[in-house]
Design goal:
Number of helices of chain A: 8
Strand content of chain B: 5-15%
Distance between the termini of chain B: 13 Å
Mean pLDDT of chain B: 95
CATH class of chain B: Alpha Beta
Oligomer: heterodimer
Strand content of chain A: 5-15%
Structural class of chain A: alpha/beta
Largest interface: A-B, 27 and 32 residues
Structural class of chain B: alpha/beta
CATH class of the largest domain in chain A: Alpha Beta
Strand order of the largest sheet of chain A: 2-1-3-4-5
Number of domains of chain B: 1
Radius of gyration of chain A: 17 Å
Largest sheet of chain A: 5 strands, parallel
Helix content of chain B: 40-55%
Order of helices and strands of chain B: HHHHEHEEHEHHHEHEEHEHHEH
CATH architecture of the largest domain in chain A: 3-Layer(aba) Sandwich
Number of strands of chain B: 9
Low-confidence stretches of chain B: none
Shape of chain B: globular
Low-confidence stretches of chain A: none
Helix content of chain A: 40-55%
Number of helices of chain B: 14
Radius of gyration of chain B: 19 Å
Mean pLDDT of chain A: 84
CATH architecture of chain B: Alpha-Beta Barrel
Chain lengths: 201, 337
């Protein structure tokens, strides 16, 4: 929780050597740390620096557990993350990727400068449950508005579309024609937990 | 009353004929003038023409020589991608976390990258409006320029993994900013706005702001005052409520607060700072004139007893905003005292 990556990796090794199971470390170790961070990072107390440090420490532990990059436990759901074509940088997307990976999701990173077509194609190819778009500048909004319709046309109407980031979070879900607008990465993760995993929306 | 005097009155908590109003319109001025954003961000002359046309149309109290947030980083060697109708962005950063900054000199604003174009724009604008309207230049803040030189993630990890190198980076960016800002004042700016969105509490903790950013902002404001700036103006986007009480220590006279800061929080602190804000930027693009007008009137009335207020958006008004929304904000400022 204090964002010390070296300590996080050392603790993971120690737990493995003591006989702790991978799933137990993910659920009771990394998962609990993420829950605590989620509680701490209210909208008023959200800062990238602390999130990135904890995210990096969690990713260090995940890499220690799965050195070949293939989790031995089933993913909670498959999620596509991206920044759209023309956005200035993709830090929000990278943070969401760290948090969702640490929470046990299979995350497909479509990178930055991603075209909407490529995004929807990737969702179909990987059988994704959700597409998460991070947007830092308002000029990507017209692209965001097309994602849900395009997914519907490709038979992916069940895929939930989430938007977040400095520019997009100023708008409503209706403005952006998406299912949910997240204030923070944790807010997005909570929506995924309720909407995607239980399919209640 | 002249526009520049109206803003000065707000800064000094003195009475004025009406509430001052500014629109942070940059590339938006190009689109309403029928130019491309690429033309606007590439030429000081085009920028000046677009800003002067926007002044004619909207009648705000300030104009801005602002192209985009990449002027300083490009002057130091970052490679940009230019686009016809969007702002350029950094494709490869000038520095890595390991760059030796001690031997590096600051860029010469008369020759480096597009810095001379900014100086040209300021000269044209000031000759055109004199002291009638406030002519505002722009520099990045130390933290924001650091993130623009090495990338946001590298800068933030560097701050924790190698604090000495990070402080050297901030010292270097401070020197760059002071030199560029002083050149802007010499070229005709009444003052350079210090634009520091990465110093927001959305990015760094408040303690980090107080320890690393605040002393350097103070150094910059003092340097600009010595160079002849008519006031110090600071913008930090996002949630900044935890540092509201210490913002005066930056030496700024006016502070631009964003839409996510509750105006009541601003009103509740003891401060000699003049504030400007804080209509949500995106509302200029997707909202309606009536909503902008009503929000403007609400802000005008909220701050009427305190004074020390300039009506504006919380951050940049997006390029694709509806002109009638900007007009609605100006109309609200003109509609009462």
């Amino acid at each position: 929780m204090n964002g010390d990556q070296a300590l996080s990796i050392a603790e993971t090794r120690k737990l493995r050597n003591a006989g702790a199971g991978i799933e137990q470390i993910v659920v009771e170790g990394i998962g609990k740390a993420m829950e605590q961070l989620d509680g701490k990072c209210t909208v008023e107390q959200f800062n990238l620096l602390e999130i990135m440090l904890v995210g990096r420490a969690a990713m260090g532990a995940v890499k220690e557990l799965f050195p070949l990059g293939a989790p031995g436990i089933p993913a909670r759901a498959t999620v596509i993350v991206c920044s759209l074509e023309g956005d200035v940088h993709d830090i929000g997307k990278n943070i969401l990727k760290m948090i969702l990976t640490a929470k046990g999701y299979k995350v497909i990173d479509c990178g930055k400068d991603c075209h909407v077509d490529k995004l929807v194609e990737a969702a179909g190819q990987h059988g994704a449950d959700a597409i998460c778009i991070s947007g830092l500048i308002t000029t990507v909004i017209p692209q965001v508005k097309t994602v849900k319709e395009l997914a519907g046309k490709r038979g992916l109407g069940n895929v939930r579309i989430l938007a977040g980031g400095a520019a997009l979070k100023q708008a409503t879900a209706e403005d952006l024609r998406v299912d949910f607008v997240a204030d923070t990465a944790f807010d997005g993760a909570r929506f995924l937990e309720s909407a995607v995993e239980t399919r209640t929306v | 009353m002249r526009s520049s005097d109206r803003i000065k009155a707000a800064i000094n908590f003195e009475p004025a004929d009406r509430l001052p109003v500014i629109a942070q319109v940059f590339a938006h001025t190009a689109l309403i003038a029928g130019k491309t954003i690429q033309e606007y961000v590439s030429s000081g002359r085009q920028l000046a023409e677009c800003q002067l046309k926007a002044l004619e149309r909207y009648g705000c109290d300030a104009i801005f020589a602002v192209m985009d947030v990449n002027i300083e980083t490009e002057a130091l060697g970052s490679q940009l991608v230019y686009r016809l109708n969007d702002y350029p962005y950094v494709e490869s950063y000038a520095f890595t976390g390991n760059t030796n900054l001690e031997t590096l000199s600051t860029p010469d604003p008369s020759t480096a990258g597009r810095m001379p174009e900014i100086l040209k724009a300021l000269g044209i604008m000031r000759r055109e409006v004199g002291d009638e309207v406030l002519v505002v230049g722009c520099v990045l803040g130390p933290m924001t320029l650091a993130t623009q030189l090495v990338g946001m993630e590298t800068a933030l990890y560097l701050a924790i993994d190698d604090p000495d190198s990070f402080e050297k980076l901030l010292d270097f960016t401070t020197r760059v900013i002071i030199r560029f800002g002083a050149a802007q004042i010499e070229a005709g700016a009444h003052l350079p706005l210090v634009f520091d969105p990465s110093a927001s509490m959305a990015v760094i903790p408040a303690s980090f702001f107080r320890e690393f950013e605040l002393p350097r902002l103070n150094q910059i404001m003092n340097a600009f005052q010595s160079a002849g700036a008519s006031a110090g103006w600071l913008h930090v986007a996002g949630p900044i409520t935890p540092v509201l009480p210490v913002l005066g220590q930056t030496g700024a006279n006016i502070f631009n607060f964003d839409y996510c800061v509750d105006p009541d929080e601003v009103l509740s602190i003891e401060s000699q700072l003049c504030f400007n804000g804080n209509i949500k930027s995106l509302d200029f693009e997707i909202g309606e004139p009536e909503d902008i007008f009503n929000e403007s009137v609400r802000l005008r009335d909220l701050f009427s007893a305190r004074g020390g207020f300039v009506l504006s958006s919380g951050c940049e008004i997006p390029p694709g905003s509806k002109p009638e929304n900007v007009e609605a904000m100006v109309a609200a400022a003109r509609s009462g005292r």
